[in-house]
Amino acid sequence: MPTAKLFLHGVPDSPAIWRPLLAALDLGDRPVAVPALPGFTAPLPAGFVPTKEVYADWAVGQADALVAMHGPIDIVGHDWGALIAQRAAMLRPDLFRSWAVSNAVIDPDYRGHRVARIWNTPILGEIFMALSKPAALAKGLTDQGMPADIAAEEAVQWENKDKRRAILKLYRSAKGLSFRHDWALDIDRLPANGALIWGANDPYVDLSVARRFASNTGTPLTIVEGAGHWAIAERPQEVAAALHAFWNGL
3-state DSSP helix/strand/coil percent for the chain, to nearest 5? Predict the structure, then answer.
């Protein structure tokens, strides 16, 4: 039976960010799920509190539903989707054949980037969100390597006020991006079958973070030269090759 794949996007993205990679992977009739984080492409569901713990539990639920139909799955995450994917694998390792993450990792020594610190700060974060315009977001994402058509889609999603509120709540639940006192304590609970794929020129999560995690855990690291934070969309063929090599070796 083909192994099902679950792809989790990050911030400020939507499932559209996976389109180039999915095309490059050419998974055929394999079962694939590419859900939107709740609140990111539609209003927040009633009663859903957008904290890191709730998103992790939601991801476990997504994985559990796939496993019920197809058996243990491969999960792939980027940015916050990478952090949530790792946490889900820590909480329910029985659900996962493997995990692979790109340009974010649960690391005890990482302290977050400048924008994360702004979003973590009450009032300042709200001012940032109020002043942040979709057109400026699209330009910024394109300037950093995201394909222009996807950046335009992400800009449309930015009109969703629930998305901006969810992002603030999510970052504040993680104290910006600090996991030293909670999720990072459980790194040894990650399943052994893991992989890192990293854009070498990431301005948000430096390559040194990936190197440190790889060294500390023995997780294989593929570096995508000439790519930044959105390597999954900038260099989809290279990322696809790395994922296929990883999955074929399991």
Answer: 50, 10, 40
